[in-house]
Amino acid sequence: MAVRDDLRTFKNAAWLGWQMEANWTDPFLFATYSVVKPIAGTLILVFMYVVITQGDTGGAFFSFMYVGNAMYMFVADVLFGVTWVIHDDREHYMTLKQVYIAPINFYTYIFGRAAIKIAITTVGVILTLVFGVLVLGVGIDVGAIDWPMLAASLVLGLSCLCIMGLALGGVSFLTAKHGEGINEGVAGVFYVLSGVIFPITVLPPWAQGISKVLPVTYWMEGVRRGLEPGVVSELGGQTGLAGFSDLTLILVLVASSIAFLFISLAIFKAADRAARRKGKVDWTTTY
Amino acid sequence: MTETWLLRNLRAVRGRAYPRIVGANRELSWVFFDVTLPLLTVAAYAYIYKFMNAPSELIGFVILGGAMTAFWLNILWSMASQLYWEKETGNLSLFMIAPISRMSILAGMAVGGLFFTTLRAASTMIIGVVVFGIALDMSQPLMLISVFVVTMIALYGMGMMFASLYLMFGREAYHVSNLMTEPIYLASGFYFPVKLLGFWAAAGASIIPITLGLDALRQLFYPVTGTQYQFLSADIELAILAVLCLVFILLSKLSLDYMEKLGKQTGRLTLRWQ
Fold first, then answer.
1. Interface pTM (ipTM) of the complex?
2. Are residues B52 and A177, on separate chains, in Cβ contact within 8 Å?
3. How confident is the model at residue B110 (pLDDT cuts 50, 70, 90)?
4. A-chain residues within 8 Å CB-CB of B36?
5. How far, CA to CA in Å, does A42 sit from each of A68, A179, A192, B206, B219?
6. For the segment A239-258, what is each residue's pLDDT rounded down to a tens digit?
């Protein structure tokens, strides 16, 4: 019974999220927004790259950078999607208090709302990758894709990101207009330190130490090994994680997800208690 | 135009600028995020160039572009979207009945926004330059200041114009601002020389004042090597920017008047949640 209730909450929350993301927008604007934004973000890197190589996009590093940047959309949007629910419902639409006291599982509601963000991001990632392969010659060979590795990395990585987003959501219960800054800050740290657009070996040694405790670093490596195994083997030791077997990478992701599950739940519950005590569940700080 | 009218509007400018100059700096965590977030992107892009053994001026271009993103984000989220947020929170109707020119409100937003964003952008720039050990040429300070000031006047004039136009977007304002983030970073060459886009694309992007401003500042900071990446010469860019200043301020007045007229006709100007 509880599972059915949760599924219904999830479905309705996802539908609400879709309405808020898409249906209140002009369809042309939304479609343009969903396609142009990610591709423009990626093209910035492309132009930065070609200013050095004089137009050549054939190198392994180009594919490394391109795929990393495309996959990073998940990092930014999933963290943002989960955390923004609290901020948006409370500050902008001022409906959080009603949702909060409704007889539903609040976690299910949050993840339902975030699910639609993941779905929209997935479309953006796929379009960006297709554009890269067809127009820019990004080194993804569909026949060479290691599907089990890709699927396992994606599922574990996205779960881990959702769980981390929950912790940030808890923090945004207690903060005034900081939700965006915290999200972007955490996502930005991952962007610099997780080997998203350049191998972590270019970082100073102390920063490489931090990189190796961030789950996103292993996620990026796992996804690349699944999606572009040829590029990863061509770059070899430069990625900094060549010594890790595929199985080890997956195990690290599993362990990270479990660890962050406990940490995030603890943070969220503590923040939730503090928000109730301080009257911040329906707090408005002039959005 | 009486002295009382002028003083009242100057007070309105000061009053609207006050929360941005004083209030925005009270919350230190906001200052922290505003300064460090652009640095993260700048650092990531700079490391790409380091990995590719690129010339150091390209890292300097990235740092300068990263600092300038603060101004563009301020235009989108604190100028263009502002009247829409004011409508949502109920302040817009108060602005409309106040015995002042609506241009004073917009000018106050611009002055305050420019002040606090300049502090943040300068911090980002200084930290970036120190961390990545970039050398900048300061041999033409007057030209540097002129280009920066004229770019900002044109840019904030554009922001004032957007503020009125955004009232038409309603809930879509959020999407429009999002849509104008990365694509504008791309079109304006925030992280690479805009010349790479080709002449006509760069010329089209020059309608956004930051495109020419950034290109001119890069030439001035790197007078020897920067010119090989220039789109137009800094003098010509300064002249075009001066024209854009006048055009955008005039258009902001016209668009504000149009929105006000439209609002009175339809009765929806201050209607929330639409």
1. 0.85
2. no
3. confident
4. 185, 188
5. 10, 25, 16, 21, 26
6. 888 888 999 999 999 998 89
